[in-house]
Amino acid sequence: MSSIYRVIDQYDRRVRDLTKRAIKSGIMPDANVYYALNAAEKAITAARKAGEAAIMPNVEDAVAEAARVVDTEEKYAAARD
């Protein structure tokens, strides 16, 4: 059972890294970025509470969506500058 928590921690670190990138690049106030990161954090919290592997696809999808949104918004921010 501890292996599922290890995987959840990996996703949690990924979201924290995405949050740092968003803050550093100045895109964190953007609603799309904020909501995507918030959804990923909520999915991670739900997975941690449940402790079940069945929830992991939700976490994977939420973190992947957050990464996609941060990457896209960073590109748009770079194009504006």
Itemize the secondary structure elements and their pairings:
Layout (H helix, E strand, L loop, with lengths): L1 H24 L5 H20 L5 H25 L1
Helix pairs in contact: 1-2, 1-3, 2-3
Features:
85% helix, mainly alpha, elongated, 3 helices, 81 residues
Mean pLDDT: 87
Task: Please report which band the strand proportion falls in: under 5%, 5-15%, 15-25%, 25-35%, 35-45% or over 45%.
Answer: under 5%
Radius of gyration: 13 Å
Number of strands: 0
Low-confidence stretches: none
Oligomer: single chain
What is the distance, rounded to the nearest whole angstrom, between the alpha carbons of the first and last residues?
47 Å
Taken from the alpha-carbon principal axes, the silhouette is elongated
The residue fraction in helices comes out at over 70%
Total domain modules: 1
Structural class: mainly alpha
Total helical elements: 3
List the secondary-structure elements in sequence, H or E.
HHH
Instruction: Tell me about the largest β-sheet.
Output: none
Provide a descriptive summary of the structure in words:
- The chain has one domain.
- It is built from 3 helices and no strands.
- With 81 residues, it is mostly helical.
Give a concise summary.
The chain is mainly alpha-helical. The chain contains three helices and no strands.
